[in-house]
Amino acid sequence: MGTTQLESVPEPKYWHLRTVLSEALDSEFAVGQVLPNERDLAARFGVARATLRQALEQLELEGRLQRRRGVGTTVAPPRVGVAVGSAELGWPGAPGDAWQAEESDRATAPAAVAELLGIAKDEPVHIVRRTRVTGGQPVAADLVHIPASSVPDLTAIDAPAGPARARAVLRELRRMEFEGQDRSVELGSARADDARALDRLPGAPVLVVTTRYFGAGGTAAVSLATYRADTCRLTFGADGVEIHHTPERQAS
């Protein structure tokens, strides 16, 4: 077979630099070590700073590097193992749930979430904010959107705000009969509120897991869980979605 047009395209400079940098990370730098500034790195490898930034962004996306506020670009630790499967097959807040409820308020859901819930775009819902910490570091932030019809007795609860209110909303949700769920995963960029919760910079790569919980013949709640893409690796199995520890890194 002849060479295709794509096969004849030379490797982009930033991609070649990404490979060289990856090898340097393995041989010259330790986990948590701060990289030299962009000017010094660009001079060392003889590339333009724009090319260097592309390579660094690619390595950040792959979880090799992470940008830290007030510190700079550091070598990322191995990915953290976090189970996202059997313990979460029931309602949010069920026994064994690894998430920590933090706050709940009423607000209008994003249009896409309202469509998944089957409600009007201007209909307010209960939004429960949750976080997940593994190994002492935040790995995910979650927003659970719950329409009023899923928690009809919530008005009788004396829990005005904070974690107590969030837990109360989830307790009421669990009164419904759980009928199942479905999930989807996509790559995204951290919004400002997610970035604060995850100790990342806005725009950092994240994995967004959208889960629909079914009850009473319809969609009872929708969860938007944002995972640090530099920390988590998702695999799929019979029990749902799991994130496994990556003990070793290999240079490409």
From TrEMBL:
InterPro entries to which the protein is assigned, alphabetical: Bact_HTH_transcr_reg, Chorismate_lyase_/UTRA_dom_sf, Tscrpt_reg_HTH_GntR, UTRA, WH-like_DNA-bd_sf, WH_DNA-bd_sf
Name of the protein: GntR family transcriptional regulator
The keyword Transcription regulation appears for this protein: yes
One BP term from GO: negative regulation of DNA-templated transcription
Gene3D superfamilies membership: Chorismate lyase-like, Winged helix-like DNA-binding domain superfamily/Winged helix DNA-binding domain
Keywords assigned by UniProt, alphabetized: DNA-binding, Transcription, Transcription regulation
Pfam family, one: GntR
Organism: Streptomyces albidoflavus
